[in-house]
Amino acid sequence: MARQQIVTLVILFCLAVARGFIGVVPTEPFNYSTQVDTNGSYLLFWKTNNTHITFEVHVKTHGYVGFGLSDNGKMYPADVVIGWVKDGVTHFKDYHTTAHAPPVVDKHQDWFLLHGEENNFGTVLKFVRKLDTCDKTEDKKIEVEPIITPGNEIHVHHIVVYRCRGIDPKFDKVHYNCYNGIPRGLRPCYDMIIAWAIGGNTFYYPDHVGFSVGAADDPDVYILETHYDNPALKSGVIDNSGLRITLTKNFRPYEADLIELGHQFDWKHIIPPFEKAYVTQAFCPSQCIDHVSMKREL
Ligand SMILES: *[C@@H]1O[C@H](CO)[C@@H](O)[C@H](O)[C@H]1NC(C)=O
Ligand SMILES: *[C@@H]1O[C@H](CO)[C@@H](O)[C@H](O)[C@H]1NC(C)=O
Ligand SMILES: *[C@@H]1O[C@H](CO)[C@@H](O)[C@H](O)[C@H]1NC(C)=O
Question: Which InterPro entries does this UniProt record tie to the protein (predicted)?
Answer without folding.
Answer: Cu2_ascorb_mOase_N_sf (IPR036939), DBH-like (IPR000945), DOH_DOMON (IPR045266), DOMON_domain (IPR005018), PHM/PNGase_F_dom_sf (IPR008977)
